[in-house]
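Summary for the steering committee. The consortium agreed at its last meeting that each partner would contribute one worked example illustrating the joint modelling workflow. Our contribution is presented below. We chose a case with several input lines so that the handling of multiple components could be demonstrated. No manual editing was applied between input and output; the record is shown as generated.
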Amino acid sequence: MDIMSNLALGFSIALSPYTLMLAVAGCFLGTIIGALPGLGPSNGVAILIPITFTLGLDATSALVLMTSVYYGAMYGGRISSILLNIPGDEPALMTTLDGYPMAKQGRAGDALVLSGVASFVGAFLATIGLMLLAPMLSQVAYQFGQAEYFALYLLAFCTLGGMASNNQAKSAIAACIGLGIAMIGYDSRGMPRLTGGNLHLYDGIDFLVAIVGLFAIAEVFFFIESHGKKSSIGVKLDKVRIPWKDIYATRWTMLRSSFVGFIAGILPGAGASLGSFLAYMSEKSIAGKNGGFGKGAVKGVAAPEAGNNSAAGGALVPMLTLGVPGSGTTAVLLALLMTLNITPGPTLFTDRPEVVWGLIASLLIANFVLLLMNVPMVKIFVKVLMVPPWILLPGVTMVSFVGIYSLSGSYFDLLLMVGFGVLGYVLRKLDIPTVPVILGILLGGKMEDALRNAMVISGGDVMYLFSTPISIGLWIAAIVGFVAPMFLRRFLKKPQAITD
Amino acid sequence: MASDRIFGLVVAVVALAYIAGATQIQTSFLSDPVGPKTFPIIIGSVATIAGLFMVFKPDPEPDWPVLRTFGALFFAVVVLVLYAYALKPLGFLIPTAIAAGVLSYQIKPQALKAALSGLGLSIGLFLLFKFALDLGLVGFPKSWTG
Amino acid sequence: MSKHFFKTFAIAATLGIGAPVIATAQAAECIAPANPGGGWDFTCRQIGKIMFDIGAVDKPIQVTNMAGGGGGLAFTNVVAERNEDANLIIAASTATSTRLAQNAYAGMTADQVRFVGAIGIDPGVIVVAADSPFMTLSDLLEAVVADPASVTFAGGSAVGGFDHMKPLMLLQRAGLTDITTVKYIGLDGGGDAITQTIGGFTQAMTGDMSEIVGFLASGDVRALAVLTSERVEGFEDIPTAVEQGYDVVAGNWRGLYIPRGVSDETFDMWADRLQQVADSDEWAEAMAANGLAPFTLVGDDFQAYIDNLIVEIRQMSIEIGVIQ
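What follows is the complete predicted structure of the assembly.
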C-alpha cells in the first residue's frame, strides 16, 4: 500500500494546474521536437536544458517539463520515421522498416495512429513497471558499496559501447574521450588537473556544453554537408481515422514488445535502441516468413514503437535508483538532474519523494495527454515536417548559443560548444558513437571517486574491487556485455544492414 | 581505411600526451592510495590501445564530402566562432541575423530567403527569449543604448 | 572588460555614497553563490521572502544565482566589483568559512567582507548503522585511536570539507596524535554517506542533522552524538559530544555576509533585518521544515565566532595536509 500513498503524493503534485500546464506544454513541444527531422529526444532535451535552467523553475517543475518533452519526443520520433523514412534518432530506426512501406501503400494515417497507440501501451506499461520496480531496486542499492559502483559504471560503458557501435575499439575511444574530458579541472580532493593553466578550465568542462555541441551543433554540420536534401515528404497523408482492426490484431504484439523493451531498458547502458531492436526482431521471428515484415506489416509498426517507448521508461529505473543512465537520452536527463542538484541514487526515493513520485505521476499523465495529442491531432504535427531545414537548423543553432550563453555568460563555453560540434561531426563520420562520450563526461568523476574511495577503505588492496558476489557478477556482465555483441552480430545482422 | 588509420594514430598520440600530462599532476600532501594521477593514466592507456587497434584494423572508408563541402563546413565553423565572440560586445540581434542568415544560405543557397530567415530568427528568438522567457539578453551594442 | 569594470565601479561608488537614501528606495539583491536548489539558494530565497513578508524591506529581494568555484566566484565578484553596494547580501554557510580558511577562494580572505549573522544551524552528527557494535561515541573514538585503519568515516563533503573536519576535531580531543591516518571518504551528499554506512561498507557517518532525520525515524541508524552545546529540541535522546567529554560544537550554520566597504549603519541595518527574520514565526516554520535548529548570532558576536572558526579549521587543515 506504500506505493498507493506515494502515488497519491505524486498526483497531488502533478495534478496542480501549474504542473499540469507544464506537462501539456512539454508534451506538445516534445512531439514537435521529435517530429522535426534531425532533432530527437537527446538533442531536443539537450538544447532545452540550459534554457529551462535559466528560467529558474524548481526541481520538480523542471523535471516534469523535461520528462514530458522526453516522452513527447519519443512519440514524435515515429512521425518522421513513418512519413520521411528518416528516424529522429537511433531508437526510431526500427519503425522506419515497416512504417515507411506502410505509408507508401497509402496507409500513412493508419500507421501513425497505430504507432501512437503502441507508443502509449509501451510507455504506460513501462511507467507502471518503473513504479513497482524502482522502490525495490532502491532497496538493493544498500548492497552497493564503492567497489560495486565502480563495477557498475564499467558495466554501463561496456554494454553501451557494445551496443552503440560495430567496432569495440571505437566505443572504447569514445568512452575514453568522455572520461578524459571529465578529469579536467579540480578533482574531488581539490587538486587542479590537466587545465594547462587555463582559468576557464579549473571548474572543468560543463557537460551541457558538450551535450549541446555533440548533439545539436554537429547536426547542423551534417545538414550543411547534405544541403538539406534528405528532407521531403515522400508520402501523402489523407484522412486520419482509428484503425481498430489493426490495433486489435496487434494487441499481443504490443504487450510482448512492451515487456521486452522494458527489460532492455533496465539494463544499464543498453537503452531504447536495444528495446526497439529486440522487440522488432522477436516479433519478426514469431511471425515467421509469412509475416510480411519489412513490407509494411502492422505488427512491424506496433512492435518497435511499443518496445522503444517501453525501454525509454525502463531506462529511468537504473537512472533514478543507481544514477546510471540506460541510454543517450537518459544520460541527458541525468545531466538535467545534476544541474538541478538532485543526486539520483537509492536515497532519492527517501530524501526527495516529491521529486520521484511527482515525476512518476506526471509520466502517467503525460502518457494520456500524448495519446490524446497524437491520435486526433496528428495532422498538426505532420505540418511541422514542412518547416524547411534552412530555417530549422539555423534556429536550432541560435537556441543552442543562447542557452549555453545564458548559463555562464562566457564566450569560452560557446567556443567549446562549437569545438564539440566539430568533434561530433568527425566522430559520426568515422562511425564512432557519441553517446559514450557524454556518458564519460557525466560519470567520469563519479567512477574515479568510486575507485579512489574503494582503495581508501581497503587501504590500497586492489582485490577489494572483486570481493563481493555482486561486484564479481558486475565485472563478468561488463566483460560479456562488451564482447558478446561481436559474436551476436554474426547471427543478428545489425539493423543498418536492412534499411533500404 | 586511411581515415580510420589516421584517426587512430591521432588518438594514440593525444592519449600519450595526455598520460604525460597526467604524470605532471601535483599530488597533494594528503594523498589517498590511488591519488589524482592513476585514473587519468588508465584512461590514456586504454585510449592508446584502442587507437592502435584502429590503426591496425580499420573499418571501410566513410564517404567524405567533396573538398568544396569541406570549405563550406570550415566557413560555417569560422562563422560560429566569430558569432561566439560577437555576442557580448555587439548584442544579440545583429550577429544573430548575420550568423543565422549565413547558415541558412549554406544549407540552401537562396540569398533572399536566407536573409529573411536570418532576420526573422533573430527578431523572433529575441522577442521569445527576452519577453516570453525573461532571459537577460542585450539586443544592441552597449554603446548604442548608453 | 576594463571599461565595463570602471562603469560598474562608478555605479557601485555612486550607490555607496547615496546608500542611506537609496537603500529604502531600491530593491535589494541576494546572491546565492550556487545553482538553484542548494542550501545557499534556500537561504537567499527564504530570508529574502520573509524580510519582505514581515515588512523589513519594502520591495521583494531579488535572488541572483552566481555559481562557480564553490562560492569563490561570487566572493571575488563582491570584493572586486561591488565592495560598496549597500543593497547587496550574500548567502553564506559553514562551507564559506571552511573554504576561506583553506585559501580556496584564490587568496581572498574573510576580512574582505563583513559577516552579518547566522540565523539557523544544521547541527553536526555522528551516526552508525543500527547493528553497529559501537554503542557510544567513546566506543567509536577509542576504536579509531587504537587502530585507525579499522574504521572508515563517510561524509557528504569532499576530503578536507567540513564533514571530514568533524570526526577529526573529535579524535583530537580523544587523544589521537596523527590525524592523517583517519580514513574518510567524501560522497555525493549525506544520503549516499548514510547508505554506505547502513550497507556496512563504512563504519560511521559524519554529517548534518537534516540528512539523518528520515533514517532515524526508520530505525536504520543510531546517532552517537550531536555536535551542539545543548541537546536538540525534538531529538532529546541524542546525547551531545560535549556531555560525553569531547568539547566539539560544530554545525552547518546558515547566514549572510555583505561587502566590506559599506557603512556601519548599513551593517547594523542588515543585522537588524536579519534579527527580525530570526524572531519571526515564518522562519521558525522554515527551520522546522528543513531540519535546522535555532542558532541566532548576529552582528559583531558573529564576526568573532567566524574568526575563531577559521583559525581552528586552518590549523587542522594544515595538520592533515589539505593546505600547506
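The interface with chain C takes residues 53, 56, 58-59, 141-146, 188-190, 202-203, 339-343, 345-348, 350-351, 446, 449, 453, 456-457, 459 of chain A (CB under 8 Å). The radius of gyration of chain A is 22 Å.
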